[in-house]
Amino acid sequence: MQADLYPSRQHDEPSWQERLDPVVYRSDLANAPIAPDLIERFERDGYLVIPNLFSADEVAVFREELDRMRQDPVVADSGKTIKEPDSGAIRSVFAIHKDNELFARIAADERTAGIARFILGGDIYVHQSRMNFKPGFTGKEFYWHSDFETWHVEDGLPRMRALSCSILLTDNEPHNGPLMLVPGSHKHYIRCVGETPENHYEKSLRKQELGVPDHNSLTELANRYGIDTATGPAGSVVFFDCNTVHGSNSNITPSARSNLFYVYNHVDNASQAPFCGLAPRPTFVAERENFEPLQIQPQQYL
To answer: What's the CA gap between 27 and 91, in Å, rounded?
Structure first.
């Protein structure tokens, strides 16, 4: 097992640590699948929004399957479905790249996975996948956090060599609870306080309260870098680094939000024993068995 280079939840006071790993693992930007300045923006800000990467017709195909799954009682009772803490409405359905042929193909789409492969510098696999819903009027907020802090402590990802890809299936506007990110926050690792309880995922996937930055750290990050909102029309894609601090407000508007969410991890950064010393989260939340490189290729959906 590798040494714990990013310790967290081990002390009574929070602290900061500078990032030890690259953000972009390749330097030959002329060979990138997108414009070099976009890769440079990702490296600087820790996130990138590419509008209209998927067409309206493709989004319609994705949404039809998403709605079918959302209404399927077998899916609701599968044990891979996370529900809102108050209303009981479906919030997320995990492992969609394993359980659904269409969503498996989307996971390997060259337009998205090809960008992830370039940024991460080689073969990748899907660490986690899910479809997310934030209904109108009742969609709950999700508090500020760095995904890597949880993936490191609870899943055993050793290094910062992963990123998230969110495919927007509805328009994301400033008023309907879009993803918010702190640009530049990916350069700093916030060591959080609090001891990880057993089976923490059962609560944290509904409402995360442990493994989140303290108020002083969040204030300092916001003062330094500001807060951006990742808005765009359906079919747009948001890429963000594993350590970018992000969250979202509740949605009290009539405009529901939904997306497909894939976490890509480099094959050399595969999950080990969790650094919290507890049993790992289930494989539907964090891949622990199949680290075979994703077969990335063009996909046709129409």
So the answer is: 38
Q: 215-249 in b/e burial notation, b at 16+ Cβ within 10 A?
A: eebbebbeeebebbbbbbebbbbbbbbbbbbbbbb
Looking up tokens 């077998």 gives: 74
The structure's pTM equals: 0.94
- 81: domain range? 21-269
What CA–CA distance (Å, rounded) separates 94 from 77? 12
Q: What is the pLDDT of residue 202?
A: 59
How many angstroms separate the CA atoms of 28 and 223, rounded? 33
Query: Which amino acid appears at position 162 of this protein?
Result: A
- Predicted confidence at residue 294, as pLDDT, reads 98
Q: Is the pLDDT of residue 87 over 70?
A: no
List, as one string, the DSSP characters of 176-193. S--EEE-TTGGGEEEE-B
Phi, psi of 65 (to 5 degrees): -70, -40
| pLDDT tens sequence across 149-171 | 999 999 999 999 999 999 999 99
Q: What is the CATH number of the domain that holds 240?
A: 2.60.120.620
* Type of residue found at 169: L
* Calpha distance 119→161 (Å, rounded): 9
pLDDT surpassing 90 at residue 194: no
Pick the more confident residue, 207 or 60: 60
Whether 274 and 280 have beta carbons less than 8 Å apart is answered as: yes
Q: Is residue 175 part of a domain?
A: yes
Residues 168 and 122: their CA atoms lie apart, in Å, by 25
Between CA 59 and CA 38 the distance in angstroms is 23
